[in-house]
Amino acid sequence: MSFSRFRYHTDPASDGFTALELLAVLTTVTLLGCVLIPALSRTTVTSQNVQCLNHLHQLMEATLMYAGDNNELFPPNPDDGTIAPGYVWCGGQAGVGGADEFDPDLIQDPTRNLVAPYLHSNPAPFHCPADPRSGIFDGTALYPNSLRIGTRVGAARSVTMNQAVGTVDPWFANGVGHCGSPRLPVNGPWLTGAHGANSAISGPWRTYGKTSQLVAPIPARLWVIADESEISINDGGLAMSVGVPEWVDYPATRHHGGGTIAFADAHVELHRWISPTTILTGPASIRAVAANDPDWGWFAARTSARK
After folding, report:
1. Residue 17 located in a structural domain
2. 2 lies in a domain?
3. Which of 115, 214, 232, 266 has the fewest CB atoms within 10 Å, i.e. is most exposed?
4. What's the domain range around 79?
């Protein structure tokens, strides 16, 4: 029998897809896209959450190591945005339009960022991966030989320290600049709701210059470092009123309405904010809230306690 007699017959009408089949395939692909794209977006946000939490954990560990090497003293945390060497845990004005918004060299400078040596001068932990800002390097005046001159960089800093935590020098404590060793506890200038009304000695609200002073709230309930809104952030401290229900500075809401926070026991949290008043959409200003505002109440209770 000759196999040449047998041929595979193809119906021309069956070649390729029919219009109906093609429509079905396109519909399926569209539906898959509708399902997968949000899932991929959520994966990216989750990755940013984890990265940001890791950054804050590193910062908190570095802060505690600094205290361990300095007789329990927390690093200096004046509320003036100073870049004076030796007087600030993390110097400069880091907010939108701030003089040091795009200056990662400042973050790496161990004289103007006293926790930098504990991070091997790595600037990454100071930047939230969800912070959208970028711009041309603006640290030329301080660092004229920087390799970053003329390049586009991300915002140098997205984080701040609780203004109730840290130390200041005697001159700053008396309102006259910086001089002497920063060994005094911060005054917590906004804790009462009126700037300058609280003090480490006579004010009604506790401040924490040393780890041994972490008694109320307990370390697991006292926040030390947090992401701050890029519209609100300026100096190295986040100002919080705990005596009056109002926002002075604003925590970040970049992570699907939440922000990352590091506590004195070194654990970190991603806290979801609830109230729309917490989300800053315009220029920062002091904003009164209801006494039962859930976000202000939660944050205030973890900022300080009455003496």
Report:
1. no
2. no
3. 266
4. 36-301
